[in-house]
UniProtKB/TrEMBL annotation, chain A:
UniProt-listed Gene3D superfamilies: 3.30.70.260, Formyl transferase, N-terminal domain
Name of the protein in question: Formyl transferase N-terminal domain-containing protein
MF annotations from Gene Ontology: formyltetrahydrofolate deformylase activity
CDD domains: ACT_F4HF-DF (cd04875), FMT_core_Formyl-FH4-Hydrolase_C (cd08648)
Cited InterPro entries: ACT-like_dom_sf (IPR045865), Formyl-FH4-Hydrolase_C (IPR041729), Formyl_transf_N (IPR002376), Formyl_transf_N_sf (IPR036477), PurU (IPR004810), PurU_ACT (IPR044074)
Every Formyl transferase N-terminal domain range: 128-305
Phylogenetic placement of the source organism: Eukaryota, Viridiplantae, Streptophyta, Embryophyta, Tracheophyta
Gene source species: Eutrema salsugineum
GO biological process: 'de novo' IMP biosynthetic process; one-carbon metabolic process; photorespiration; tetrahydrofolate metabolic process
From TrEMBL, chain B:
Pfam families: Formyl_trans_N (PF00551)
Classification via NCBIfam families: PRK06027.1
GO CC, alphabetical: mitochondrion
Limits of the ACT domain: 46-129
GO terms of molecular function: formyltetrahydrofolate deformylase activity
Single GO BP term: 'de novo' IMP biosynthetic process
UniProt keywords, alphabetically: Hydrolase, One-carbon metabolism
Protein's recorded name: ACT domain-containing protein
Coiled-coil parts of chain: none
Length: 324, 328
């Protein structure tokens, strides 16, 4: 799952480009004639717990003139694992991008890390994602609009759906305007056409299922090998499967919710990333249950994807996540 | 289930009529009077009504109150879409000289008959006896302690007739000393797999108005529920329908959820499945261990149970369909 991140990061290091238009911080410099431009970086680390990890990581950053602005460490009780996430600014002249990778990689080897990922948002390419959906498109629309507003820091490579959409619909015109291909891949009970989907998404960094109502098989997940994030408009583990808003309405609950989670072979059961709730009462009918669920869905999915892109989400045990 | 409330109140209303007393210590409102020499003391009342929907119910109910000089201060009406039922809850103040308590019961009863009401309950908190409840628990007593303290502070408007538990407690424990100080009897009724001693429990609780299960870990059978005939409220420290049964906090911890909650609901034969009255949540994260999951669950439990019981005593909770509640 998230393991694959580290492989991606090394590919980034070989292809980095300096983008002068990206956000910079100005800081002090020994050479007083030119102020260096400092840029932000994020590093997450996941390894077996030992004495001295933070010392080594922080020293690595300081030695190259980097300044740590935020640091989260989490070591769970009785479990011999260590998680950290650091935010720092650095001068890419003093600490070149591929050197950043090498330096953290050394520390990763020293501690036998399960995961060590560094990301420099202004230099590294954005995450490439594909969005999958079926008939309901409010989640997709939300994501496309947030992406257009610059609030979703990804590159959308394509949209895949098992429903056909007419070319004069809002979504199709939007995608055409932005040069994002739409692939209609119809599925049947016998044929989920997973090979074709795999072919379409193999260059992506992760997938987002935004009301994609087909179950992806274990073979697909293994074949893809990277993370798949799903949004479920129910408060898992309640109301798995289809129509969770209606299930909730029939159950007479007083709180409804949405859950984003990583996809596993089992339906609606993977590690949970984010959950949100809202109150409902007898005054809510099925329509308002559905409406509230959809509003929650959109917020919850956007938040989860943002967290994921900011390297805040890490695997924890077999079925949980650390979300810094 | 909640249907029973109306039967009881009808009986009680007659009983109240026979025994009504003036309580000068209760809260009263002063209002105008035709006789200017003495200001009447106005007393708050609550009426809930549940019947098949037709034109004219609100008119009749409000007229009934106004005709006796009562002043409606709050009114909630709910008629669900596509369902031919009507719910209302009114709060009003009235002069018990102009509108005697027993007459009030009869007046509302007349309207109830006219509209074939499933439920018509009136309650005058300052005149009517408090609800009598029995509390059942097993080993975990934080919910009971919370309820006892809130009751002592006057925040739980009930009479606690007794506490029943399948765990024994030593006399020098906080709970036992508290109960003794307040003259509330504690009954230790151990259960086994074969014998849930439901008859003994029924005997002890038959005069109560409703039961509260505050971490009572035995399943009450359908026979018990039928035999008791009145409402039983349970608190479950999980967000139903997730995590039914035992150790919901641990189930939630293992499931890696980011929100945990508590649910109060009416008890039915099926475990943790009756109509939900109230739910509350709190956020959890990777930084929470099992201990803090449990602690947060317990804090939520106490708040959620208190809120539900308060709502119930204020006649805010009504049955809705087979599996839901209206909570005004």
């Amino acid at each position: 799952m998230i393991r694959r991140f580290s492989e991606r990061a090394s590919v980034f290091a070989n292809n980095w480009i300096l983008k002068s238009s990206a956000s910079r911080f100005h800081g002090e410099s020994l050479d007083s004639s030119v102020s260096p431009v400092l840029i932000p970086g994020v590093h997450v680390f996941h390894c077996q717990d030992a004495v001295g990890i933070v010392a080594k990581l922080s020293d690595c950053i300081a030695a190259k003139g980097g300044n740590i602005l935020g640091y989260d460490v989490f070591v769970p009780e009785n479990k011999n694992v260590f998680y950290s996430r650091s935010e720092f600014i650095f001068d890419p002249v003093k600490w070149p991008r591929n050197q950043v990778d090498k330096d953290f990689q050394n520390i990763a080897k020293t501690f036998g890390a399960m995961n060590s990922v560094v990301r420099v948002p202004s230099i590294d390419p954005k995450y490439k994602i594909a969005l999958l959906l079926s008939k309901q498109d409010h989640c997709l629309v939300e994501m496309l609009h947030k992406w257009q507003d610059g609030k979703l820091p990804v590159d959308i490579t394509c949209v895949i759906s098992n429903h056909e959409r007419a070319s004069n619909t809002h979504i199709m015109r939007f995608l055409e305007r932005h040069g994002i291909p739409y692939h209609y891949v119809s599925t049947t009970k016998e044929n989920k056409r997973e090979d074709e989907i795999l072919e379409l998404v193999k260059e992506t960094d992760f997938l987002v299922l935004a009301r994609y109502m087909q179950i992806l098989s274990g073979n697909f997940l293994k074949g893809y090998g990277k993370d798949v994030i799903n949004i479920h408009h129910g408060l898992l583990p309640s109301f798995k499967g289809g129509n969770p808003a209606k299930q909730a309405f029939d159950a007479g609950v007083k709180l409804i919710g949405a859950t984003s989670h990583f996809v596993t072979e089992e339906l609606d059961s993977g590690p949970i990333i984010e959950q949100m709730v809202e109150s409902v009462s007898h005054r809510d009918n099925l329509r308002s249950f559905v409406q509230k669920s959809e509003d929650l869905e959109k917020k919850c999915l956007t938040k989860a994807i943002k967290s994921y892109c900011e390297l805040r989400v890490l695997p924890y045990g077999t079925n949980k996540t650390v979300v810094f």
